Amino acid sequence: MRLGVLASGTGSILRSILEAQIPVAMVLTDRACRAVDVADEAGIPVEIVARDSWGPGFDRDAYTHRVADALGRHHIDVVAMAGFMTVLGPEVFEGFPGRILNTHPALLPDFKGAHAVRDALAAGVTVTGTTVHVATPAVDEGPVLAQEQVSVLSDDTEDSLHERIKAVERRLYPKTISAFLTALDERQTKR
Ligand code: GRF
């Protein structure tokens, strides 16, 4: 199984996947970001599929097509989103049915979206957490594979809380990806 990882940020979740010895065939980002350096240091091929627009003129389907094309060129079988901040259109989900995973910094279905940690703090919850799920075209939906709680402390800022959640993601996501890849391999050998 050839795993492709999609990232936009610091690449700390990507790094945790690599440290878990999960083979990564390529890393794709939507911008120049530290995740590119993490991939470069590990000698993993990188595709920067840069967005040409961040405004209302953004052509999501055309962008998704470029992503699908890059994944195809690298013969990717399974995709793990690791802090990828562009919402992709249907083409990529049709190309990888049930084979795109995501890690989200909240206990889905609570606090979907790009500001999950901020929203959890604003809501005043005492417990939030992280969710690994199979991604679908509907953002932050799809079957949940794993969840773990994280307590909110009274003096938490968005950064401090996110960092504690990410510490859990760096353990839970690689473990869940591994189990998912093993199950997929076993299903294929039985065919
Ligand atoms: C993680 O919290 C992930 O769930 C969210 O973005 C963060 C990525 O962290 N979608 P990093 O850039 O890998 O450090």
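^ 5-O-phosphono-beta-D-ribofuranosylamine complex. The chain is about 40% helix and 20% strand. The mean pLDDT is 97.
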